[in-house]
Each structure stands twice: as C-alpha cells, then as structure tokens.
Amino acid sequence: MTQRATVIVGGGVVGLACAHELIRAGRRVTLIEKGTVGGGCSHGNCGYVCPSHVLPHAGPGAVWSTLKTLFQRNSPLKVRPGTVLANLGWFLGFARKCNERDMLAAAAGIQALLNSSRSLYEDLLARESIDCEWEAKGLLFAFHSKAAFEHYSHVDELLRDRFAMPAERWDAAELLEREPALKPGSVSGGYLYRSDAQLRPDRLMREWRTVVERAGVSIREQHEFQGFVERNGKAVAAKTSGGEVEADEFVVATGAWTPKLAAFIGCKVPIQPGKGYSITMPRPKVCPTYPLIFEEHRVAVSPFPSGYRIGSTMEFAGYDETMNRDRLKLLLDGAAFYLKEPVADGPREEWWGWRPMVYDGKPIIDRSPKFPNVVIAAGHGMLGLSMAPGSGKLVRELLTGEPPHVDPKAYSLSRF
Predict the structure, then answer these.
(1) CB 99: neighbour CB atoms within 10 A?
(2) Hey, how many other C-beta atoms are within 10 angstroms of the C-beta on 84?
(3) How far apart are CA 79 and CA 145, in angstroms?
(4) pLDDT, tens digit, for every residue of 271-286?
(5) Whose CB has fewer CB within 10 Å in the chain, the N or C terminal residue?
(6) Tens-digit pLDDT profile for residues 89-129
(7) Residue numbers of the domain that contains 257
(8) How many domains does the chain have?
(9) pTM > 0.85: yes or no
(10) What's the count of helices (H) and strands (E) in the chain, helices before strands?
(11) In whole angstroms, what is the distance from residue 166 CA to residue 154 CA?
C-alpha cells in the first residue's frame, strides 16, 4: 500500500504535536512554516501544563469586567475600542457565552483536552527522553486582598465538585512559609493545584523538533502558505512561497493567523489575536519555588531551572506588531508587588505573541467545509501548550478513522 502523505501548515506546538502523531501513525509528513518552528506564541509563553484552567474566559460577570478596560489606561486586560468595532461579531459572541450554562459546557470540552494532554506529555517526555525542564510541582494562585482570596473559594469549590480538580488552600501564614519568595504583607492566601506542571517552551520545541525530524518529518521553514491546489473537490497540494507540496491530506494549525486563511479553508473562524507579553531573564537569588499566578494583577511567574520568566496580560489590539512597553511595565510592577526579588541582573528577552482566542474558549478541531481532506486545528487561546498533545492525537484520529479518544463534537465548526 502506498504511504499516505500529510502536509501540516504551521510550526507551533499544535502543528508539531500533529506531526508527531501522524508520523507515528505511518504517514509521510511534511511541515511547512512561514517563519521558524516554535518562533511564534509557542516560544515565550509561561510554559504551564495546567488542567486547573478548565474554565473559559467567557463566564458570568466577564462582560462588565471587559467593558471597564475600554476606559482604563493600564488594565491587565486591555481591549481597544477600535478592535471591538472592527470585530463586533466576535465580541457579541463572547457576550452571549458569558453565562453559567455555556461556561460549564465549554469547560467540559476544555477539560477533556487538558486531561488528555497532561497524561500524554508524561508519556512523550519519558518515551522520547525529551529534556524540557519538566517539573510537576503544581501551580500556585496567590491573592493580595482577603476579598479576592475568599471570592476565589467559589471557583475552587466549582473546580473541586464539578471537575474533580481539588486545590490545597493556604492562608497567608502557610503561603509565606511554603513560598518564601513572597513579601510579607503582599498576600492574604493562595490555592495550589498539584495537578499542574511546567516546562520550558523553547526547549520543548527544540527537542520535539529533533524527535519528529529523526522519525522522518520533513520541515520546511520560510515557506509561506498561499492556498491549496484543488482537484475533484479535494486539496491535492499546498501552495507555498517555496513551491507546491503535494499530499493526500492537510492540517491547518496556524493559530491566530487562521482567520487570514478563510478563502483557502472555506470558512471564517471566530479567532481574535490576544496579545500576550513576557520577559525572560536569569533566576533571581530569591527565586520562587512554585510557578505563580497573581490573579488580581494578571501576572504569571515561571521559575525554570535554567531561567526565570514573567508573563501574561491580555491585549486585544488586532494584528498590531508593536512592542507596547506599558504592557511590559505592568508585568514588572505586578511581580514587584508580590516578590522579594522580582527581577535579576543579566540579559533579558522581551517578547510578545498572539494567542488565538475563540470566544467560547474551545479550540477548533474539525474538517474544512471546503475540502474533506483538510483538518483545521486552531484557536487554543492561552492553552495551546497545555492542549497540544491531546489535539495532535485527535487530529490523527480524525484523519486515520480511529475512534476518537475525546468527543470531537466539542471542537466542531458547526457550533458557530
């Protein structure tokens, strides 16, 4: 039997996961990327593999909190009014999902991929001997105000009772004892989710690339995707800036760029680029033990064995490619509010990337309505790293006809 060929468009973490699953399924795989593999949002994120993040951003109260940012200069969540007007359908879709019923329905789909990927990561790293600074210490949510700490107890109760996602609740004294990098007086308490883990994204991408290339995946960087060659209602080749690449089937894993490809994939996908920022530097002398999220400031801290990263915030500004230094200052100010030693001397990498945000919080993993042999895998929001292995496995199952290990209806285009 002739070996089936697959082309994957997009060299982020989801594209690489798809390549790995399909090469293991016996496909002949070519991955094309307009830049460099792992050079986009898969590079500078905080590296969390976090089953605790089951709840989507669209939930009760989210509309009002989003509207407030229109009139605030330095909110951790920033939405530019012009972006709202230019993408009104997306923001109205978000508003319609801000209720408990839809939030819980979306969370079920999110959790399925998170739990699948958490398990698949451990299998992958052990089987392939990937060194990406994996640490399974958990993820610590720290709160400054007593009101915020107590308010989060309702979220914690929901995660525990509805999603079997328990946390350890620590009051201020226990939190300061267990995480001595925090300033006394900066916190009222915290919640530790021991289910969660952390890795260094750039090292994962470098090592995983080596694994898939060793297995036979052909990677073509600096090849911009320019559409499909069509024959008899199917895609038969990917047009790229480096020429055509023929295949039997195709995967479009292009993250926040996917809406730009609507004419090629035959549908509009409701994805908005949500701009996130990070600053990476050497470890400070007083470095946190745990990965940390400061919910009230929307700042995350990643203490890697080989370095230290402050990241997060969210900016809806369309496809703006500028480095907004006010956003970087928010990260530094937020870390300084809580940590004894928030930064370290030495070289720093300042970074931004576009998260592919779908308004209901779930990714799109489904066949193109235009071409039955094209699968779209995009829209993973802030959880692309956390969901990648499970997404790659589901894409493989859709293309090979294997029984899906999670319900694919949750990620279908038909929900829009």
Answers:
(1) 15
(2) 16
(3) 25
(4) 999 999 999 999 999 9
(5) N
(6) 999 999 999 999 999 999 999 999 999 999 999 999 999 99
(7) 5-415
(8) 1
(9) yes
(10) 11, 20
(11) 12
